[in-house]
Amino acid sequence: MIIAPSLLAANPARFGQEAGRAERAGADWLHLDIMDGQFVPNISFGSGVVKALRPLTKMFFDVHLMCFKPEILLEQFAAAGADQIIIHAELDGQVESLIWKIKKLGKKVGLAVNPPTAITAAQPYLEKIDMLLVMTVNPGFGGQTFIHECLPKIQQADAWRRERALPYRIEVDGGINNQTAAECARAGADTFVAGTSLFGHRNLKAAVAKMRKIVNANDPALADLKV
Ligand code: DX5
Ligand code: ZN
């Protein structure tokens, strides 16, 4: 189980310190939300910020591109220190070549599916990706409410993974708190992005530890072992 605080919820004037705070809190990954003002109606930050953060932490950088033209950004985010680059299934015809380009840059590949998009949009790519991101809010802003209708998509992604013995992770992103993280873990998620519910805490270490304990307790694989 991986806990990935989303830097979007941190104070932008203190990104460096906040990344350090997440690492000291025991977070596994740092989730970096890149918004271009076109794919989503908001702008966040670019590869310059990722590059500036890279020497400050050893955390795995999970770069989520909510961008209309990711092909013009892949090289700069790879060079800036991304460990994984996530692109969106909504980009239809471009997905295959984007996956190939990210792999060629030596980075892990994530594929994201927005709430209105059927999970079957990701099906043709399951053998080529390292992670499937089931969005649990419509992307663009932090602090939104978890959309429960997305839970069956997580179950389906997990069922495919078992049937085909594939190794991809299942990440959830949007409105994740201790309660919704538990629901997602029971549905088969293993990677949890949380912005508001983690960075909002003065004691981030305690918040990360609590979320980790809760998702581990709701891990269906461990439940099987207990039986
Ligand atoms: C949503 C972003 C998320 C966002 C999550 O557009 O992709 O990563 O930061 O924020 P919370 O956890 O506050 O919903
Ligand atoms: Zn995200």
Give a brief rundown of this model.
This protein has helices spanning 15-24, 47-53, 74-80, 95-104, 151-163, 178-187, 196-199, 204-217, 220-226, and strands spanning 2-5, 29-35, 60-66, 84-88, 108-113, 131-135, 169-173, 191-194. The protein is α/β, with parallel strands linked by helices and 227 residues long. It has an eight-stranded parallel sheet with strand order 1-8-7-6-5-4-3-2.
Describe this structure in words.
The protein contains nine helices and eight strands. The chain has 227 residues and is α/β, with parallel strands linked by helices. It has an eight-stranded parallel β-sheet. Strand 4 (84-88), helix 4 and strand 5 (108-113) form a beta-alpha-beta unit. The two termini are 20 Å apart. D-xylitol-5-phosphate binds next to strand 2, strand 8 and helix 7.
Salient structural properties:
227 residues, eight-stranded parallel beta sheet, 9 helices, single chain, alpha/beta, globular, binds zinc ion, binds D-xylitol-5-phosphate
Detail the poorly predicted runs.
none
Sum up the overall morphology in one term: globular
Structural class, please? alpha/beta
The ordered H/E elements are: EHEHEHEHEEHEHEHHH
Strand content: 15-25%
The number of helical elements comes to 9
Task: Note the topology.
Layout: E1 2-5, H1 15-24, E2 29-35, H2 47-53, E3 60-66, H3 74-80, E4 84-88, H4 95-104, E5 108-113, E6 131-135, H5 151-163, E7 169-173, H6 178-187, E8 191-194, H7 196-199, H8 204-217, H9 220-226
Parallel strand pairs: 1-8, 2-3, 3-4, 4-5, 5-6, 6-7, 7-8
Helix pairs in contact: 2-3, 6-8
D-xylitol-5-phosphate binds at residues 6, 8-9, 31, 33, 64, 137, 139-144, 173-176, 193-197.
